[in-house]
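Today's session is about reading a structure prediction critically. Students often jump straight to the picture, but the first step is always the sequence itself: look for stretches that repeat, for charged clusters, for runs of hydrophobic residues. Only then move on to the predicted structure, which in these notes is written as discrete structure tokens rather than atom positions. Here is the chain we will use throughout the hour.
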Amino acid sequence: VKRGARLVSNSAASVIKGGASLVSNSAAVIKGGARLVSNSAATVIKGGARLVSNSTAVIKGGARLVSNSAASVIKGGARLVSNSAAAVIKGGARLVSNSAASVIKGGARLVSNSTAVIKGGARLVSNSTAVIKGGARLVSKSAAAVIKGGARLVSNSAASVLKGGARLVSNSAASVLKGGARLVSNSAASVIKGGARLVSNSAAAVIKGAVSVIKGGARLVSNSTAVLKGGARLVSNSAAVIKGGARLVSNSAAAVIKGGARLVSNSAASVIKGGARLVSNSAAVIKGGARLVSNSA
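Below is the predicted structure for this chain, in token form.
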């Protein structure tokens, strides 16, 4: 159907092109500025064409899809206003509202979505569950499984993995921070590794590559409970195991100080061993060549 013709109803039209209008159809290729009002399965929508309602389609070349339930590919600057399941959104495409989009890439923008992979500099304004990578930015989110590739997460309640130099400004529970990632404020981070930096945190199970475990040269500025090892540095802490050359500047109760670690100030350290150095402490057991500069008991 071509050259401005209008097709009201058809079950299988191979090609709709040249500004033609198709009101209702089950299977078609729509191209060249054509308009398709309602369709159940259109293989390709391209060349600036407009599809008002469709269940399954490939949308490309600046085409616009107003409502769709399952579109395999949205690409080439296309815009998808509302959709429930879009497999791929790429090439600068914009998706305003969607419940499950597998991949958002190529600078695409997703305004609202519940489940997605966001990559290639794409921006996701609000989302509940996503993989964020490739420099993408996520402004607000409740649960993001993976934040990687220099991506930035401004606010989030639970991010499982932050890696690849990613930055998380505020978060309540981040399971893993790795690859030089930076977390400014967080209440519970399970793992911090790979040279990552955690500025403020209340309970982090593992800090490595720096809070049950602080290792791999990581730095933790403030924390309440930690194991410190592998040259890590803890500035202030209330209860910790310190080992492997780690340094603890101030602490109130550290169960074990071992492996050449250095503790500058502490009120109650149960065991100081393995060549460790304790500058000031009130109650401690000192063994294995350790050095204690000042202590009351």
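Discussion point for the tutorial: The longest strand covers residues 35-45.
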